[in-house]
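FW: tagging you since you asked about this chain on Friday. Here's the raw sequence from the shared folder, copied in full. Didn't touch anything.
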Amino acid sequence: MSLAWCWRDDWITGYDSAYGLFAKFARLNSMGARELASLFVNRQRGSVTSILHAPKIDLRSSEFFDLTIFAKHLRLDQKAIQQAFLIDQLPNRGRHSCNVLRWCPRCAHRGFHSAVFQLDLISACPIHNLLLRAKCPKCRRQIPYQLSQEIFDHPFCCPWCENDLAPELRRIRPQVLTLKSEETTWIENLVSLLIFEDEMVSIRLEINRARKQLGIGEFAVAHADWRRLESEYIGFVKQVVDIMQTELNTSQQSLELGALSFSVKRPHGGGQPLPKKTYRRKATHAIEMDKQNSAHVKMSWDQKLRGSYDVYNGVRRYLWRHVVHQHHRCIARAVKHLWWNMDGESTCSFCPIAEAFIRWRIHWELCGTPQYLFSPMRKDPLGLVAWMASGAPICPVGWTIEAERWVSDNLLGSHCFGSFWEFFEIALKNSKRNRVDWDKHAYSGRYTSYWAIAGSDTLKSPVRIYKQVHTPNEIEDELRNLGSDRHHFMTHLSQLSKIVR
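HL: got it, structure written out here
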């Protein structure tokens, strides 16, 4: 009779990481890192003796493990093994994975950890929408993502202070996390999106190599947004790739753009820029602006940040004058009433247009206190700075600074408008349930278009921008249908009076 190790099939949540599976296996069999290594390490690999004596194995990769034994003792199929070592399927994205444990506190509480959490671009749990942790909340130290003695002396615990990350697993009859069907679907969507984007790297390099030889310039595509549906990104990228391949083969029939918008930059030298105004607009009664303070903040800005702020300021002015103009007094009373930092607060709802505009400005200026939004600028607009660092396009080599700014300003304007419509949609939902959760991570980019850029910034091949077409007509209709009469304003004031600190 062959010996069998203890294992519970109901402890497999789905998309479990190697760390999570090893931690549960070690818990059930009272094993440490040496025993786990002795059982699961591939004996055909070199330096087996040193590995077994003092294991320090990176759990992002499966190269040191015998996957046949791994599947046998944990009763896993091939798909579950691929999920445990997801980064093996991402040869390009894997370079941007984290070598320290990143976890969702609610998932870990019930003994679940996914390999998805180890990717740098994933900032929040796709199940609970909570920010991932990378440091122990008790001692503030990081936990290496590896199979080593100190990590697995107490599985799912901080090795430095022994803070328990999964107290549910210590119970006699633990309730291990079980994913709902929509949660499983969402993680599957995320994994498929990551794999597709990773596969696109080699395809993009091949097409760009051919385009460069023909002198028509390279193309670049936006990164996939893990918070959005896989089909949106895949459909857009395939359309753009078809267009790029058509340009390589002039005999091939040109494809229609379909649901893509298309912008072309005018040739360089077509006109002179307008002279920059040397005076400031006078402050209105609604927005008190300390000129000296704001000017002092802007003195440290470089030309790129100044240009981006002009774009954001233009969109803000347009929204103020043409979109939210009937609700100025709703906004003014709301920002006057909300004098404290609202991040993490939960309040009743009020005028949805006022809520949307305030939260939109909080998002881009990263100022958590609404009252400060209409007072002198005291710090850089950090939301805008964050977009420039992570969301702004990286243009192909050889483009002029003018072309790069044109592309960046175009896409920034699109992001600014799209984010406002999303915050308004969130505000409408909040109004129906009479609750506002002031979560600065609520924005998902639902109305923000994916983009692609191409061309060589020449007369023969001008710079082009391809974007998805988003027409939030229903949302615009909702905005127009919202009343702005005395009854609406009095209801707004009544709701604000219920919000106290």
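FW: The longest strand covers residues 260-264.
HL: agreed, and The radius of gyration is 27 Å.
FW: great, closing this out.
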